[in-house]
Amino acid sequence: MLTALAIGITAALWLISEVRTGYTFLFQTPYQGYLAKAAMVRLDPGISAESAATRLEAAGVIASARVFIRYLNWQEWTHRVQAGTYRFERPMTLPDVARQVVRGEVSRNTVTLPEGWTASRMFRELEAAGIGRYGVYRQLWADPRRVADIAPEATTLEGYLFPDTYEVPAGVSEDAMTGIMVRRFRHVALPLIQARSARNRRTVHQLVTLASLVEKEAGSPDEQPLVASVFANRLDLGMRLQCDPTVIYAEWLAEGEWDGEINRSDLSRLSPYNTYLNSGLPPGPIANPGRGAILAAVEPTPSRYLYFVSMNNGRHLFSDNLREHNRAVHKYQR
Length: 334
Prior knowledge:
This protein has a domain at 22-103: 2-Layer Sandwich (Dna Ligase, domain 1). By secondary structure, the protein is mainly α. Strand 5 and strand 6 form a beta hairpin. 48% of the residues lie in helices and 8% in strands. It is built from 13 helices and six strands. It has helices at 2-28, 49-58, 65-75, 94-103, 119-128, 134-141, 174-194, 204-217, 224-237, 244-255, 264-267, 291-298, 322-333; strands at residues 39-43, 84-88, 108-112, 165-169, 307-310, 316-319.
């Protein structure tokens, strides 16, 4: 009888040893069950550990969902799985995978949106970077409620999507990305305007609109305060701004694109954005200005300049009367 008991105990110990060895193998051996360069796994908000494990196993990131759950239980991590889109691109041990999803080390995308881009161009770039869909962004752009408290005149979000380099989690929604850009505007641009509001009679929306014209016209950042000065002086005198980029924007609104040239029909286009036909500022921004252009619009360089013309080298020549301006045009544009 004792012999049978000893045999039973020995068998049990052997079985425990084998199970432990099996788990140790699964824990410590890097695994990659996918053939692609990388595996992307989306874990939705509120997902259970069991569902997360099933998705990871289905994607070939882990060998066993059951063992993964046992490991989470052992570590008391069952309720600590973080939502997000995860990227796996090398063989990983089960504990390494667990730590990644518990720490929320999600895949991230980086995209640079330069100063002076229209919202439409930003949306194309975001879509190309795998951050949302152009059509959804356009729908969000047409809803200005995100800035209604600071710019009640705004009819779209043009001008309020701050240009910057953004690093965002993979899988971020279009709504969330739009919110990120608007919040960056509020954090960076809005304080520049509000800090000088006592010295400026224009509204936030008017200043952002002016800044967008400055951003599109200035050949270099150091010219922005002078370009802003020209526009401010012309506004004060009731002169039309005659800003070419507004004509381009009007064509884009009407045609959905710009053909690359400004012709007479463009200059005579009936659009509130056409500053060759209409006095004052256009009804809204024509692009998304950066910090420098906004600061220039708020604090333009004091001058008497009313005109400027491109010297075809990235710079402009400024004039305070029409005669000098016509000479400059003849010299550089004929």
